């Protein structure tokens, strides 16, 4: 194995693992804030108990997200130094701003929220969970803006041997960012909705069978319904934003979408068929309708185009179609500027030609099997999760509660996992579909790793750290799941308000929350 | 970005690229100083966790003195890393890739201690809790040691050579010259110093934030560990400044700053003597102030030696000097970051100070509800 392969596995494993915790952190923090707000407004103790119950599960999850997130920020420099050197002028800013604006906010105010039960006024305490939650959203904005830039490098030029920022606003108005961010957020709410619904549902079924007090049943029923509605509505939003993102991808990353749809050769314009399985072609023209364009190119044509004309985007492809396939008139505009390539890609074209001549790009297309299947698994599993949401609503309609059974337990166990799987496949598709590029159409992934002839970035050392990360993460995953199960089994806290503690008056008063 | 604000800022403070780069070097320095001042004591508390007291109630008091704060303290490190990336991508790339293995240890440590604080109280079993106490200890020790070794290396100057990899004409990738050279005896002294200093800083923090038995133990420990720290600090300051501190050792050093580094370093030694004096007198607040000053001046001393070479020695790079001018990001990015920092840093400082005010009271075992299981009563997980 080459160091590049190991470094990619390391990034993949640590990132997919980190992302198991991120969507829950984002969306569950907001749902918890909403629950606490409803309690503060109405005084209905069911909402307070749900706040505390899901707040505790949220925090177990949050801790894992925090510690695995540190690895994310460091490994760009550790394993991908040439990527960092090349893109740092653009990519570094969102990372720094994420730390400065988002991480401080979420860590400080969630700390205040955890330890502040009964020590702060209700209003200040409620504000702290909202600020913590807002921090997680700001964080997602910066990191998705950074990732969207890797998919579609806007607002940058090639200067001083690196990509340089020339328009910060372009980063935030990047059409990929504008569709990818809502898509990611919607999927986060699918994750949190499924989590809340499945756990509440499981506890509702158990509580009913054990003839628990009415207050418990009421609270668990609320949790099930709120979670299921969040899941379904967020699921619909995920579909809509996914569609918009797909239409963007066909323009900015035609190879990614060609691989996702299994298009090796270009289909007849207007008659692109949909393949549900490789080679099983249905509905001529469906893909044209789906992506809103008559011309969808296959991988062969895209590769040939790269070899003949270098990296080109949609304007070039449109021009080719208009001019009956005569490329010469499409290479430059009337001022002699390269057409179809802008900013960074245009400026870097000469260097890229050298790199391509040396064969340092590798396969010009992404792995079609991975792109094809991760794309379908993302969508299929996501849809299945939405069906689960409908099931929950039907199962607890009116005052009904299903009897405990193996099936109910299985549904409750599988449901929170489905969105996690769909999220993971989504990111695997996004990142693998961009290959061979780390910055789309500019920097090949091969050239992004840390060069080191001596020791640290050799295959054996990278393998060693990869194994250590995996073992550590594996052990932590087991502990995390056991703790979650323990606190799910404990269930709602007793139906009493939190007594206010004022250490300023009674310095021996027990803390209402302590580690 | 608001172009009006940009123009206004430029008119008010016409900064050249180089001045912005210097400003960002200072800002990153402030972030490091803030990180070590804050995380220093909670690294110390983490390292002391299995040792200071055998009683679970005492240990819970210890964890809870830093409970609401440790995560926010750690963000200073993330911000320092992010700011280095955003302002000096070449520094971030060379530094983080050069220190790949040491940084891996830091990451493992930070992961362990983070989950340790969160998870230790979530099971009643003594075995479970003891295991997490050790995880917190090791997890605090590893980053402390590595940062100590690292900052000693920066003072000395990490030697860079040109990689034989080049992707296009004129493309040079500076890489560090050798892994084992990171473990020079001077750098090991740096590592030990950081460990001793932060344990002392943490023990004095505990005597300031607790009452009762555990406070007495923390005081007793600090009065001894501070003596070891004085000796290590004196060795580090004298060795570092006398042998590696000269302007000729690493290209580009500024004579005045080197002189100031001497003064600042001696101040760090003096501050530790003060910490010993006040801690013996039972003046916890003043003793904490002294270890804080020692931490701040020690880092400042190293940072003074890192200007403008960023802790790299480029003698072997054949004419290229990796310094803050060379690796600075574009004017556009630096300007943008400056505006964000000018707005956000005061806000962040304000609410972080507020959290210390909210959780300002001393804690004792009276404040912690005993929820531990009797020894031998529960399984590990």
Question: Would you kindly provide a brief summary of this structure?
Answer:
Helix content of chain A is 70%, strand content 4%. Chain A contains 17 helices and 6 strands. A two-stranded antiparallel ribbon of chain A has the order 1-2. In chain A, strands 3-4 form a two-stranded antiparallel sheet. In chain A, strands 5-6 form a two-stranded antiparallel ribbon.
How is the secondary structure organized here?
The complex is a heterodimer of chains A (515) and B (381).
Chain A: H1 3-42, H2 45-79, H3 81-116, H4 122-151, E1 156-159, E2 162-165, H5 168-172, H6 175-209, H7 214-252, H8 254-260, E3 274-277, E4 280-282, H9 286-291, H10 299-309, H11 314-322, H12 328-331, H13 343-347, H14 349-357, H15 368-395, H16 406-432, E5 437-439, E6 443-444, H17 459-490
Antiparallel strand pairs in A: 1-2, 3-4, 5-6
Chain B: H1 3-12, H2 17-48, H3 56-66, H4 70-87, H5 89-98, H6 100-119, H7 126-156, E1 158-162, E2 174-176, H8 185-209, H9 213-243, H10 255-281, H11 284-305, E3 312-313, H12 324-327, H13 331-358
Parallel strand pairs in B: 1-3
Antiparallel strand pairs in B: 1-2
Structure description:
The complex is a heterodimer of chains A (515) and B (381). Chain A has helices at 3-42, 45-79, 81-116, 122-151, 168-172, 175-209, 214-252, 254-260, 286-291, 299-309, 314-322, 328-331, 343-347, 349-357, 368-395, 406-432, 459-490; strands at residues 156-159, 162-165, 274-277, 280-282, 437-439, 443-444. By secondary structure, chain A is mostly helical. Chain A is globular and about 80 Å long. The longest helix of chain B has 32 residues, at 17-48. At the A-B interface, helix 2, helix 3, strand 2, helix 14 and helix 17 of A face helix 3, helix 4, helix 5, helix 6 and helix 13 of B.
